[in-house]
Amino acid sequence: MKLETLFTGALTLVGLGIVYAAVQYGFGSPREPGPGFFPCFIGVLIVLFGGILLRPRRGSKEAPKLFANRDGARRFWLAAASLVVWLLLLDALGFLLITFIVTWADAKIFRLEGWVKPALLAAGTTLMIFLLFDVWFYIDLPRGFLG
Q: Domain range holding 12?
């Protein structure tokens, strides 16, 4: 059995555990979510995508290696570093600004062409996450020096 299959299976089981634990805390409703609402949603997504990845595929080719060359490794580590920067600067710069900057930087790291497409991706991502957490779930996001 491939290592990827074992990992995906284990991750799917973790997703089931998350769903089980989230239901124990109380699901609530979309209008008034309980403490288990968001974890349950994420757990269901993990199980769903794990199931998709575990199903046998006909005629599929081997996935390309992540670190087949130096460029792939460099992009991976730059993207990982950008997430560390996001965590370190979140309180100082605030959610909106640092999320926009890091999403734009990641788009450029993964070679999204031009300047408009990365900016639109960063703006859309920042807006959707802000709406999801700050507006719909009433979770205060760090405001940084703007707040």
A: 3-54
